[in-house]
Structure formats: C-alpha cells, structure tokens
Write a structure and sequence with these properties.
The chain has two domains: 29 residues, no CATH class; 172 residues, 3-Layer(aba) Sandwich (Beta-carbonic Anhydrase, Chain A). It has a six-stranded mixed beta sheet with strand order 2-1-3-4-5-6, with helices on one face. It starts with a helix and ends with a strand. It is of the alpha/beta class. It has nine helices and six strands.
Length: 204
C-alpha cells in the first residue's frame, strides 16, 4: 500500500498539474469513443497499450474478458455494454484477450477450478471457445492449444455481444463496429482478427 500511496502523491504533484485542463474538461462529463472489454489480469493496462488519455476509452475488466450472452445472467458486462452504447454513444467495441491468460489456462485444465465454484461458473462462458480449440486436433502442445483457445475466446465473446439487441441495433444502423484483439505481453504486439483472412494479424 505504501507504494500505491506514493504513486497517488506523485500523480497529484507531477502528473495532474500537467493535465489540469484535460481533467477540468472531464470533471462533469465523458465522451469515450471505445468500449474496451479486456481481462482483469494485472499485466493488462488498456490505456498503456493504446496510449490513450483519460476519457478516451470506457474499460470493462473481468477474468477472461468474457461477455455472457444476453439474458443468460445479469452481469456488470451487460450493464456496461448497454450503458456504453445507449448513454455514452460509443462507436467501437474491442474485445481484447492476451497471452498467458490464467482464465483460459483454467478452462483448458478444468481440474484447476476445484474449490473455486464462482470461477467455474464464470468460465462456463468460455466453453464455446474451448470446444473450438479442441477441434484443432490432439497433436498440438499445450502452449499452442492455449494460443488457439485465447483467440477463439475473443471470437466467442464477439459472438456473445451480437446476442445483445442494443449491439445489433447499433451495428445494423452503421453506428457501431466490433473488433477482436489479442495482446502479447512479452513482445508488446497486438493482433487483430481480420474477418476476410479468418486470422489474427499483427496490428500495425
């Protein structure tokens, strides 16, 4: 905690004064352009990865960057999607997975969920992705299968997003675009799904 409190002090004395005008403009309203759904993993910082300013992106963090299908469960994700589109008017949604994802490792190794019933219930929303990864064949080693699972999970959550009426309405009207990303922690590279290629390609 001492380190966090020291960080607050540094923010107040060094960072905030330089951005005082920005924070003054943000004090009473926000107009983010993007809803960024990503993992709660401590290594994932959307603002750092995208080099965005406060107010630019509306971030929803959870274990495994999951989006339960509409109506399956009342969740903060559903509330975030609804609020971002209807109230904030975001025009882009990014679902961003990442390398070495602990949630996806747990999906691939169900025995690791023993004694964690809440985790198990939550990770059930990644079962479509796990089935898709398994269809890749048995010859792959664990790391390669995990990479495929991470990518398939991003695609599965995009499919879940399309079950939301608020998403389909905005998408059909041309007011909303959906994007699937995977961030590689070790290299800093970001890969975006290209529907035309059916692959994740490096974002440049």
């Amino acid at each position: 905690m001492e380190r966090l409190m020291a960080g607050v002090k540094q923010f107040q004395t060094e960072v905030f004064p330089e951005k005082r005008a920005l924070f003054k403009n943000l004090a009473g309203e926000q107009h983010p352009e993007v809803l960024f759904i990503t993992c709660a993993d401590s290594r994932i910082d959307p603002h750092l990865i995208t080099q965005s300013e406060p107010g630019d992106i509306f971030v929803a963090h959870n274990a495994g960057n999951l989006v339960p299908p509409e109506g399956s469960v009342r969740s903060s994700e559903a509330a975030s999607v609804e609020y971002a589109i209807k109230v904030l008017g975001v025009r882009q949604i990014v679902v961003c997975g990442h390398s070495d994802c602990g949630a996806m490792k747990a999906v691939a190794r169900p025995e690791s969920q023993r004694g964690l019933p809440a985790v198990g219930d939550w990770l059930a929303h990644a079962q479509d992705a796990w089935r898709a990864a398994q269809s890749a064949g048995d010859a792959l080693d664990f790391d390669e299968r995990l990479r495929i699972l991470i990518e398939q999970n991003v695609l599965a959550q995009l499919q879940h997003l399309i079950t939301y009426s608020v998403v389909t309405q905005a998408f059909s009207a041309g007011r909303l675009k959906l994007h699937g990303w995977v961030y590689d922690i070790e290299t800093g590279k970001v890969y975006q799904h290209g529907p035309a290629q059916g692959l994740f390609v490096e974002l440049t």
